[in-house]
Amino acid sequence: MSKHSKQLRRAGLTVALGLCLAGAAHAQSVTGNIYGSGEPGSTVTVQNLGTGLSRTVTVDKNGRYRAADLPNGNYKVTLQKNGEVVATRDSVQVIIASGTDVSFGAGGNVQNLDRVEVTAAAVPRVDVTQIDTRTVFTAEQINKIAVGRDIASIALLAPSVVSNSAYTANGNTVPSFGGAASSENAYYINGYPVTNPLTSIGFTTLPFDALAQQQTLTGGYGAEFGRATGGVVNVVTKRGSNEFHAGAYTYWSPESLRSDPKDLYFPNTGFYGDDNADPTKRTDGKLYQTRKKSQSWTQSSGIYASGPIVQDKLFFYANVELTKRQGEGVASTSQAAATTTNAWQEYEYEYPRWAAKIDWNITDNHLLELTGVSDVTKYYSDGYTYDYATGTPGNVQNAGTYNEDKARLYVGKYTGYLTDDLTISALYGTQKVDHSQSPWGYNPACPRTSSSATTRAPGIPAANYAGCWTAATVNVPGAYDETKGFRFDVNYRLGNHDLRAGLDNMEAESFTGSEYGGGFVWVYSRTNNPNAAIDASHGVGSPAAAGGLGNQGYYVRQQYYTQIAQVKTKQSAQYIEDRWQVTDNLLLQLGLRNETFKNYTSAGEVYVKQDNQWAPRLGAVWDVHGDSTLKLFANAGRYHLALPNNVAVRAASGSLYTMEYFTYTGVAADGTPTGLVNVPVDQSKGYTCPGKPNAISSNLECGDAPDPRTVAAVNLKSHYQDEYIIGMEQVLNSNLTWGAKFTYRDLKSAIDDTCTPALGGGCFIFNPGESNTFWQEQADGSFEQVTYSAAELNLPKLKRRYYALDLFLEGSIGEKFNGKINYTFSRNYGNTEGQLASDLDTGTGGQTDVSATQDWDLPQLMVGANGRLPNHRAHQIKAFGAYQISEEWRVGGSLLIDSGRPRSCTSFYPTADQGLYNGAYYHFCGLAGSGTAPGSAGYIPPSSDYAFSARGSKGDTPWNYTLNLSLAYTPLWADKKLTLQADVLNVLNRQEPTFYYSNYATDRVTPDQRYNQPLGYTAPRQVRLSARYDF
After folding, report:
1. 65 is in which domain, residue-wise?
2. Which intervals hold domain TonB-dependent receptor plug (predicted)?
């Protein structure tokens, strides 16, 4: 043993917060391992200090031992020779999916070491068996640093994880991992997947105080798990022990200690200043939406208990928690408030949650775990009018809603230690999430209306445009998501080979749907040029051609949207993996995973089947000096991702999405336009629905379920990504460790939909950027397979690439301070974000049609799409730590700094090609003009500044700085059972724009009043006060 290694082993170093631990364990496992060296033939006994669980293994002929698949907790490790104890280690902490090295020497060098506190980081400082990249936090560590009390906030402390404000779940943003879309992550509770089965955006959560450990994987995990091309979050709940524990806690974030959020203002466009001829359009620099009147406060309280039911055999843990978040504020813009019935909202979120766990040590070799989790979200909202002139809300309720999402999760797991070398485990779980909605005063005879000050015709009372509607959309009654999953794993140690194999099956079903309140919506609009076609690409003529108020450019469209479906997915996988200790210094990980995905329509027919998806997972780690002070590691792998249920709801079911355009002469008191005259439509363009000659549907979604053969390309490949990582970690001294890691990710195949004219109408699920074969209906009603090359589809090659250099330094200073700092330089670029399109967010969230985004629909949409992607952040700095001032007082904190998100400018396409979407969706900036040939009727030239504008080429949002601090007091007079704590989040109250409105125009000739407007800001400073009593 080297002098350096010997010093480390004796020192009992203090744990560094968030240290990435591994060992001969696996990615999303809920157990950990203790391994090490000793004299061949001797025995090692590991005993859980909380439950009494005990296992004895024999040191093999090579001087190595391993106790695998241990429940997390603190252990005593004892080395025995000829029945006599020769060495012990106390308080060895087992971390989920990680290994802890407890070595006693070998070959006659066994020493009776002093008893030493061995915690997660202490032995060794560099884990020479770790191949993947992970960050693990325990509940104790989380409580010491100032951070949000939710799973996403903890995940954001890991390198390469960024916030994406376009998507939320459980009231928090859904993060992006390593340049992937927010839907490409996987989430687990006690080994069972709890990712949203409908959209893959978000996850089921639990009482935060029930969390024992959270593992965040950002790459390189083995063959045991898949179905993620972003990252993985693995949560393990607390469990009972032989000691009875109970407690109560409360957290309060009062409004009085919260800073005001920033108001939103119209940008200075240069078109809508005080010199504009139309007073309703003098908006430059004016107030868009007031947010300073917004108020909110949060209260979270819970109780827990744990302990033995039968000593050393049967244990329980239970937690019940209720979180309430209440608030009020202006929910409408200054222009729309006059016609908005819920311009002022008073709301309340309730999150009643519970978690329970039973652990039964049937014997020391046979364990059974049962977990139950309830995650309920209740949302109440009351709507009132709001007067921007006086700054006062109305006192008569006009709108409201009550929504409830109720999740129930049950998981059972058996673990059997059949021999020292053979372990098996089996897990089965089920989850059901029920969704309900009760709109206040909903009248199905009152359709929704939409207008603004600039789209309302003069002479018509603004109140008429408001209509009588109270619900924007109505969800189908009885909606639910349900999953069932089973996995079986075998772990066998054969000499220097740690062999693992298993099965992993999951089935998910969803019944879902929604439609516009009242069945459809009246959208009132206006164009600067009444003689210009509203949508020449789809054959919609000019407002003036239909007379009435159309002569002044005013028109209205009747828009229908309905989708209802009951859909299902089945996913299965088999894997095998060998962790081969080639030499004392070199470990190889050789894995292979095979996955099968099936997606079903509402009629129960398979519309996508993907099988024989082989995913190699290879890794190596080299203990350079053989003393755990310097390691080099590398891994390479392929990762597949299945289509969620949501794809079938719109693409493989009878969805309806149509628009019919009219001019009008007036508006009735219920919001219905009067004097309607159809704007002429050229049916020869091919975008009208059968029997509805004036109803336009760009994707021909006319309410009829498609033949399942025509939904997706034949032999559709799954979404998959290749990843390569190389890195090193080194001990600097007895207190500090540093490391560096380079990651490269390349998205090789994606799934999206295309409606390119080359396919002759309609939309298909396909693999972008490559040749695809489709079933196409022929004139005689038969179907034939037709293959199109990427060139024939007129679409570019798929590209999404991510590379990153991560550097970290962690450790302790003396015995009172410990922490970690991480710096990441990265680049995320290409022509697709992945399954989502968050850069389409105009203030209400990104596009949530997973794997059916607007990207790839048309060739014109991909012109200029190659550039810096929305999840690109060139620089990130993350730091966290804690300092124990005295036995009673402690301070902690976290710091998150990142460079801005790329900005873009989008407008209309230069030419009004047939089939183009009529919107500012294209990578051009400025006014496109009529898009027709010069000299033709109604020709309008583009603006002088109209030009090509590649994605992400308009600079970045400002850098974001978030400093969080905490102060805790644990008085000795209360026997350290009471903790009073104050956390200040965003201490500096830096509220920076997080994204901007990127649409330059509202139609081909009219600038958008909001282009370059900040749409969101960093959350303002808030103070969280807490008190807890544990005994």
Report:
1. 3-123
2. 133-232
